[in-house]
Amino acid sequence: MNMQTQVNKTPRILLAEDDKVLGEIVKKNLESAGYQVEHCMDGEDAWEEFQRKRYDMLLLDIMMPRKNGFQLAQDVRSKNTLVPIFFLSAEKTMDADRLDGFRLGADGYIVKPFSLLELQRRVKAFLKWTRPPKNELLIGHVVGDHTFNYRKMKVYPRDSQTAYVATFSPTEAKLLRYFFNRPNVIIKKDELLMKLWGRDDVTSSRSMDVFIGKIRKQIKLEPRLNLETIFNVGMRLNVPKDLTLQKITIPITNQAKQ
Fold this sequence. Notes:
The structure is a single chain. The protein has 258 residues and is an alpha/beta fold. Helices cover 37% and strands 23% of the residues. A hairpin with a 4-residue loop joins strand 7 (146-149) and strand 8 (154-157). It is globular, with a radius of gyration of 18 Å. The protein starts with 11 loop residues before the first strand and ends in a 9-residue tail after the last strand.
C-alpha cells in the first residue's frame, strides 16, 4: 500500500487559513466532530506540513501569504493525485478562478461565509467516499475490457491489476460509480448535483461540467460506451446489452486487507 492509498485510523485534515480566528474556529469545530486537524497560517508552512504527514483531506484558503491556495494545490497534486482538496473561497471569487482551481485538481469549493454545520456535513460526506467505509462493499466495476477500481482510483485492463491505463480523482470516482450503477437510465442534472455535491447552484453546476468532461475520457476507453447529454433533462450512460458490466465487491471482513 502506497502513501496515496494508506488510511489514517482517525481522519486527518490539513487546514491552510491565514485568518487566525477563523482557522481556530474551524479547527475546533472539526476536532469536536472527531477529526485530527492541523492548522497552518500560510501556504508554505502548509506545504511543508503536507510533506511530513499523511492527510485525508486538505482545506485551503486561496489568498494566503508566501504561497497561495492555487500554488499549494498544484504542488500537492505533483506529489499526490488522490487526496481530496477543497478551497475555502470568498463569495466574490471569479468563476474563471474557480474553474482554474478545478483544472489544478481541486475537488470542490466551500464558499465563505459558511456554516460550521455545512462544513462538517461536506467533510463527512466526502471522507465517507474517499475512505473505505465499514458497510461499503462495492469497490469497482468491470466494464468490457477494463476494470474501474474506485479505491485505487485507477483504470486497469480487465486481466491486470498492475499496469493501469488511467487514473481519476475522488470526485471523478463518485461520478463514474454513479453512472455505472445506473446504465441506460436518464439521470437528471439536479439529482447529480444534490447527490454528489450536496447543492444545486450555478457554481456547483459549472464545477460538475468540468468533472463530466474529465470522466468522458475514462469512459471513452470503452469505445462502445456513450455518455449522452439529453438537452434540458440530464445525462444517460448508454451501455449496449451485450457489453459486460459487472460489480466488484469484497466481504466486509476483508476490507482491512485491501
